[in-house]
Design brief:
Largest sheet: 7 strands, antiparallel
Oligomer: single chain
Number of helices: 8
Distance between the termini: 33 Å
Strand content: 25-35%
């Protein structure tokens, strides 16, 4: 399941079923790059090679995935070929080439190199929690999250979402938790935090008791906690950021073994059961964060 979470909230009531969503995104399926494509981007099966549908749905949870494939052309190779061509032309024509001419040459070189270029693929997944009216994207990159939302918006015609924000600044709450030495149940402080002060003042602590005087002295001097490692019950550990993002999300071995009695004779069935198990726990985590961080920012 997810390794990172960037959360968005519907700012207007949103409802859709798996069939309708599947139909909507079917026209925007991923296809590998052709010989002259620099990159391609589209929806791919939610469960990868084990999946047959672009949307996976179970018990009110919807998952979609997008794949991006890009051609890899080393900048050094382009520069080397460009320099050779520019030098040859300038010598043969006894003049300096303009920037416009050099740019045109560069485009020609890239076009010539595209068919032989290696490709790389990346997959980004999104979990839609209809009950909570949230979309959670598994990425540490805001730009990748926005790319997924833009494609989903294009497929659906509209997608009324905004970044998830809390009523109280997250850094204020995290600072109070560290200052008091505890977080509200079911959360527990772990031994990692990042504090920030004015301008570029940063203090990072890892594998260190956050109740130590060194940490608290920074808070007394006005610094605030912008990243804090937490655990959620016995199931999930993560780093909560001041913008609400969750980084390095990790599920415990005890939790991930919750469906072991099902075995692996039917991989698709096991994957479906795990999807429900993990999605439900992520939902509980998001609900608990809302309760502990003062609730979501009021929508206009």
């Amino acid at each position: 399941m997810f390794k990172n979470i960037i959360a968005y909230r519907f700012n207007k009531p949103f409802s859709i079923n798996a069939e309708s969503l599947e139909t909507a995104i079917n026209d925007f399926k991923f296809t590998p790059c052709g010989s002259q494509d620099i990159s391609n981007f589209g929806f791919s099966p939610a469960f990868g090679k084990l999946g047959k549908t672009l949307v996976h749905a179970a018990e009110g949870y919807l998952m979609v995935a997008v794949t991006k494939e890009s051609k890899i052309i080393p900048a050094a190779s382009i520069k080397e070929r460009l320099n050779d061509k520019v030098e040859l032309l300038e010598q043969s024509e006894a003049r300096k080439l303009s920037k416009k001419e050099k740019d045109a040459l560069k485009d020609e070189i890239i076009t010539d190199m595209l068919p032989q270029a290696f490709t790389k693929q990346s997959v980004t997944k999104a979990l839609i929690l209809l009950e909570q009216q949230l979309i959670l994207i598994d990425s540490s990159s805001a730009s990748k999250a926005e790319d997924l939302l833009a494609l989903l918006r294009k497929a659906l015609g509209s997608l009324p979402v905004i970044p998830l924000n809390y009523k109280i600044p997250v850094e204020s709450t995290l600072t109070e938790w560290v200052k008091s030495g505890s977080a509200p149940s079911p959360f527990e402080l772990q031994q990692e935090a990042e504090l920030r002060g004015n301008e570029s003042e940063v203090a990072k602590f890892k594998n260190q008791d956050l109740a130590e005087d060194e940490v608290l002295a920074h808070i007394e001097n006005g610094m605030q906690v912008h990243k804090l490692a937490l655990s959620f019950g016995q199931s999930i550990s993560f780093v909560l950021c001041s913008n609400g993002d969750l980084k390095r999300v990790k599920f415990s071995e005890e939790f991930t073994s919750g469906n072991d009695e099902l075995g692996n004779d039917d991989p698709a069935a096991r994957l479906d059961a795990d999807f429900v198990l993990f999605s439900a726990e992520i939902k509980h985590l998001m609900n608990a964060l809302s309760d502990s961080l003062g609730g979501y920012e009021t929508l206009e």
